[in-house]
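User: My instructor asked us to take a sequence, write out its structure as tokens, and then describe one feature of it. I'm not sure where to start. Here is the sequence I was given:
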Amino acid sequence: MKYLAIIAMMLIVGCRSWPDDSALEHKIMVPAKCRTDRFSPNGDSDHDRYIEGYERGWSSYLERCVEDIDHEFQAGDDTSSGWWAAIEGYGEGAHDAASRVEQMIQRYGKEQTHWLLVHRFSRQKMK
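Assistant: Let's start with the prediction itself. The structure tokens for your sequence are:
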């Protein structure tokens, strides 16, 4: 009985939770300077451009981690071209994704984090 209790305790303490898609959910905080009523001739607003840029930066960084879970954030990971709001959004998205991956690795470990990223992006490509 004593050994059974020890084994049960080791399992409870030693087990990490398994990540699911909610671990990659993110909320985009659009800066005030991008929340304007200005529209370009094609109908895009700075707000829309920021969100689009953020999503591209977020996805781009996560795709790098799919290829190499040991990828470390470096110069160029937060760089893009286009409208100023999209460029700013891209940089913020990439930085936020890098922070999230680091948090996930600390919580779930590299193997489980990588598994989630691979499966999440393989499903997106199938759509």
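For the description part of your assignment, you could build on this observation: The helical segments are 2-14, 46-67, 84-108, 110-126. Try explaining in your own words what that tells you about the chain.
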